[in-house]
Amino acid sequence: MIGRADIVAVCILVAALGVFTGFSFAHLQQPIAQDDLDYLVAAETYYETGVPKKFNTADRISTYNPELYLQLVVLSFRLFGENEAAARLPGVVSGWLSIILVFLATNSLAHGTRIERLRWASLTSVLYALTPGLIQGVLILSIDNTILIPSVLFLCWTFVQYLVEQKIQWAVLVGLAVVIALWGRVTTPLIVGVALIAYALASGSRAKSRQVGIGALGVGTVLFLVTWYAYCAVLNVPFEGPFTYAWNAFLDKAGSLDLSQIALNGLHFTLWVGLFPVVLVVVALVHRVRVFLTEAKVRPEDAFLLCGLSLGVGYLFIGGAIFGYPKYQAPAIPLLYIFSAVTLSPMRHEFIAAAATQKRIAMALSSSPASFKFLPWVIGSMLFVIRCVKPWR
Which helix (H) or strand (E) segment is 237 a member of? Predict the structure, then answer.
């Protein structure tokens, strides 16, 4: 039965989506930057000639990644016309999906009564919708900061839900999620898959459930390889392209680690996520460590922590912040939000009242017309100062 709490939660979720959409659409026509050129030119030439070409050449683009994102941009051209705004729409839709998935995952895993879970889900979705890195990231024509975010989030959530509920429907969704995520990029889902396997082996689930969950990851991987091979055979593109590129990129970055650059990458990540969410994650992490030392038990939220840290910290060393934006770490942000909410949700007496206050503050800020210009200005100004202090290499 739908109650007042459900209606309020849905209204807050819709408001969060509306605020995010307002921020995104306000900059939908922003000038094309260097990061955008590769996919914009490839999508335009694919739409016009049937062959995606490199920028400033007549050659077909290399298959550095599977081409799901390219196909989605071309589909947007077919639906809304060939223009820059249409090219950015798949990213905006990815943002919508990510915010909704944050709400659903938090609501399904948080502790407490149904109303308390809805409160945590509402608060978390609002905070994530206001994250500067999400708002700006969905407008960049790239994979990691657009379609990979909901894909990775969907994979983590379905895997955890299967181990919690042990229903075959969730296992099927795990396999589907693996296929979708790998069609976005082959590296990040691999890291997440390893983290999920480690979580499954450490969890208290039955051995059969762990085997089925891990098996679903394997089946999804095989399905991706089969469909990618068929795609390459039809379009006559090299099958090994994404794998060769990922391996070479890893060797290149691993051999040129710079501690000062790693620290700068961490600073960029903090600024794009926001100081409050970073503090929230640290508080949740400290609390989780204290609880784990007491009960020595792995919980569902630990899967989101393990995956989030694997991506967030790992890509500080390999990948970094491209032109000051941490696009490779973008899929880690909602995972850490969910971990924080679920971890802190049992602390009802300390946090529920604060959560309601923070929710009202966030909604008040987001409803202010000035906030549409104020937030990007603050982030942009701080990043500009950093770039002046330490030039890019």
Answer: none
Kindly state whether residue 244 falls inside one of the protein's structural domains. Answer: no
CA–CA distance, 302 with 148 (Å, rounded to integer)? 21
What number of CA atoms fall less than 13 Å from residue 147's CA on the CB side?
25
pLDDT category at 320 given cuts 50, 70, 90 is low
Spatial separation of the C-alpha atoms in residues 120 and 9, rounded to whole Å = 10
Are 140 and 35 contacting, i.e. CB atoms less than 8 angstroms apart? yes
Angle of helix 275-295 relative to helix 259-273, nearest 10 degrees? 100
Does residue 75 belong to any structural domain of this protein? yes
Rounded to an integer, what distance in angstroms lies between the CA atom of residue 332 and that of residue 308?
A: 4
Is 323 contained in some domain?
Answer: yes
Residue 155 contacts residue 97 (beta carbons within 8 Å): no
Of 298, 305, 93, 301, the closest CA to residue 192 belongs to 305
Q: Look up residue 224 and give its two tokens.
A: 């991706």
Residue 185's region, left for phi above 0, alpha for psi from -120 to 50, else beta, is beta
Element (H, E) at 328: none
322: helix, coil or strand?
Answer: strand
* Cα end-to-end span (Å), the chain: 58
Which residue's entry shows tokens 């007549």? 58
- Average pLDDT of the chain is 86
The residue assigned the tokens 């705004």 is 85
Q: Are 106 and 338 contacting, i.e. CB atoms less than 8 angstroms apart?
A: yes
DSSP state of 31: P
Q: How far is CA 229 from CA 180, 191, 217, 336, 393, in A?
A: 15, 22, 18, 34, 38
> pTM of the prediction?
0.87
Structural domain tally of the chain? 1
| Burial (CB count within 10 angstroms: exposed 0-12, middle 13-18, buried 19+), residue 209 | middle
Domain range for 330 is 4-239+257-389
In 3-state terms, what secondary structure has residue 325?
strand
Cα–Cα dist 290/280, whole Å: 16
Q: What is the pLDDT of residues 191-238, one digit of tens each?
A: 999 999 999 999 988 899 999 999 999 999 999 999 999 999 999 999
Residue 245 located in a structural domain: no
Helix, strand, coil shares of the chain, percent, nearest 5, are 75, 0, 20
Alpha helix (H) residue ranges in 140-258: 148-165, 168-184, 187-202, 207-235, 241-254
Q: Minimum mean pLDDT among 46-60, 77-91, 220-234: which range?
A: 46-60
Residue 325's DSSP bridge partners are 322
